[in-house]
Design brief:
The chain is of the alpha+beta class. The chain is built from 12 helices and 19 strands.
């Protein structure tokens, strides 16, 4: 019986990985949970462990190949003893070539079953297909004759079909990118061309470009704006900053207030915390808030899970830890998974106003911006106040304008009167 080795679920903004290197070779014995292969993604480098003990019977992808989440990497067969004898036989094989007269000896016998495997595969095409294979073939439109079987006696397995479907789904993407790039590129004048430098896009930048364009093409994206008076929040930070850091061991920032304000607004406006799945709407009764963090390698979005159950201090600690590990490149896949809503802060770079792009498949993202003192009409007086523009981009297919505006107003109200966050108003 064979156990499949598959690419694990990747992070929110990670849709593919590159095979870094295999730690084992086909025929090697492996122990359960022993690292088998290293995957390099745009955000993190991970090791895929062996799901069970046995023999690494087959490696389906080689170093440098690009794979999608769930793709089949190889198979492990039961039985550790044959794994040791098989490599031993292979080790003797290179030593045998000098005396060619010894070729008929029993030593070369083990390779014979390996050579027989391909000849068994064509016969598998005449074997009856399992119901799950027939269903997948009908749904996907993939010809079963084009899929290489890996099952016993050359049978086509459900895993073979799933892997073929994944490869077919991933194939059009590079073509679309190449096509759009060629169309967009106009020839340069000879004098200008001599002063140009052509640099291949990094894997991270390619992924960012594809995901952002996919979000624009898929969602009916719209942005609404408001502004918030940060006087009360800034006053709280100034008054309790030292005491907060002394007690909790972390600085009191702005992001904790925004996370709490967003969670409170999401509870009232559940559509902003939902997503579309085909013709269904998935309402998520939990609040995993993604916080965008800029690094030298690019933007990552670690997730503060169950933010509605965390104190302000716990939220600040998690965000500070994420920021440190993002810059060190030590974030784990689980840190990037499962977000239901995202907050991004362009204000730290000086942005006064922007329209953030959705982090698909989420239906909402809040953009924070630079705090700038501006004259405001307070009652019958003109006063200078620290103001911040807020922007929420949303998927108009699921979130109506009324809901988006109301969401932003609720965030504004909570920040201008932080007592609401304490009293859950």
């Amino acid at each position: 019986m064979a156990t499949e080795i598959r690419v694990p679920t990747l992070g929110e903004s990670v849709t593919e990985a590159t095979i870094g290197r295999w730690f084992k070779h086909a025929g090697d014995a492996v122990a359960a949970d022993e690292p088998l292969v290293e995957l390099e993604t745009d955000k993190v480098t991970i090791e895929v462990p062996a799901p069970t003990a046995g023999v690494l019977a087959e490696i389906l992808v080689k170093d440098g190949d690009t794979v999608a989440p769930g793709a089949l990497l190889g198979q492990i067969k039961e039985g550790a003893a044959p794994a040791k004898s098989a490599p031993a036989a292979k080790a003797d094989a290179p030593a045998a070539p000098p005396p060619k007269a010894d070729a008929p000896k029993p030593a070369p016998a083990p390779p014979a079953p390996l050579a027989a495997a391909p000849t068994a595969a064509p016969k598998g095409g005449d074997m009856p297909l399992a119901p799950s294979v027939r269903r997948l073939a009908a749904e996907s439109g993939i010809d079963v004759g084009t899929v290489t079987p890996t099952g016993k006696d050359g049978r086509l397995t459900k895993g073979d079909m799933l892997n073929a479907i994944e490869r077919a789904a991933a194939a059009p993407t590079p073509v679309a990118q190449s096509s759009s790039t060629i169309m967009a590129r106009a020839p340069s004048a000879p004098d200008d061309a001599a002063r140009e430098e052509r640099v291949r896009m990094t894997k991270l930048r390619q992924t960012i470009a594809r995901r952002l364009k996919d979000a624009q093409n898929t969602a009916a994206m719209l942005t609404t704006f408001n502004e918030v008076d940060m006087t009360q929040v800034m006053g709280l930070r100034k008054e309790y900053r030292d005491l907060f850091e002394k007690k909790h061991g972390t600085r009191l920032g702005f992001m904790g207030f925004f996370v709490r304000a967003c969670v409170q607004a999401l509870k009232e406006l559940p559509a902003v915390n939902a997503e579309i799945d085909g013709t269904d709407i998935i309402y998520k009764n939990y609040y995993h808030i993604g916080v965008a963090v800029g690094t030298e390698r690019g933007l990552v979005v670690p997730v503060v899970r169950d933010a509605d159950t965390l104190s302000l201090a716990s939220i600040e600690k998690k965000i500070a830890d994420f920021g440190h590990r993002a810059r060190e490149g030590t974030l784990k896949l689980e840190d990037l998974q499962g977000g239901t809503f995202t907050i991004t802060n362009g204000g730290i770079y000086g942005s006064l106003m922007s329209t953030p792009i959705l982090n698909a498949p989420q239906s909402g993202i809040l953009g924070m911006h630079k705090i700038q003192e501006r004259p405001m009409a307070i009652g019958s007086e003109i006063k200078v106040r620290p103001m911040m523009y807020l922007a929420v981009s949303y998927d108009h297919r699921i979130v109506d304008g009324r809901e988006a505006v109301t969401f932003l107003v609720r965030v504004k109200e909570s920040l201008e009167d932080p007592t609401r966050l304490i009293l859950d108003l």
